[in-house]
Design brief:
Double Clp-N motif; 0% strand; 174 residues; mainly alpha
């Protein structure tokens, strides 16, 4: 009983570190895109940087280079803005000329898609009772119908059903 209690505390501490790394990483990527708040796409990129390597394992099973996800996200951002009449040159000029967004001193805040990801991984892990890993971010994103993150995966011609199965396989290894 004591061993189980200690193991649960260790898991909670590890999960807090993982959440911290995800949030800091997502903010870093949002900043690179000159955005104030991170969205699901930024959490997806941050999950690739986690030490557990679970996200990289998921994509490796499908023969997908996870380092190409960043370019797919940039393309989705560019296409979305072009769809409302903002050309890529203006985006690049704005990024170069603008100051980098400074981290907020307020409570942690994300775009709605980022909130969805964080809530979903919390709900899933609470019922699952396992430690939090990067693969859980991809699991949450796959439950989304819309957004840049899911469109970027589709634009890379990733079979989302095969990706879901790869996620499940990785979750079973934990």
């Amino acid at each position: 009983m004591l061993y189980s209690f200690i193991r649960n505390i260790k898991t909670k501490i590890q999960d807090m570190k993982t959440i911290s790394n995800l949030c800091l990483g997502a903010e870093k990527y949002a900043n690179q895109y000159n955005e104030e708040k991170p969205g699901a796409e930024h959490f997806m990129l941050a999950s690739l940087d986690l030490k557990d390597e679970s996200v990289r394992n998921v994509f490796a099973r499908l023969g997908v280079n996870p380092d190409e996800i960043n370019q797919a996200i940039i393309k989705q951002h560019t296409e979305a803005l072009a769809g409302i009449g903002i050309e890529q040159e203006a985006i690049i000029a704005q990024t170069i000329l603008s100051e980098k967004i400074k981290p907020s001193v307020k409570l942690y805040d994300t775009k709605p898609s980022g909130q969805f990801v964080m809530q979903k991984i919390y709900q899933n892990n609470k019922s699952r009772g396992t430690r939090l890993m990067g693969v859980h971010v991809i699991e949450a994103i796959l439950s989304m119908e819309y957004g840049i993150a899911i469109r970027a995966l589709q634009a890379m011609n990733i079979d989302l059903i095969a990706l879901q199965k790869s996620v499940e396989t990785e979750c079973n290894y934990m």
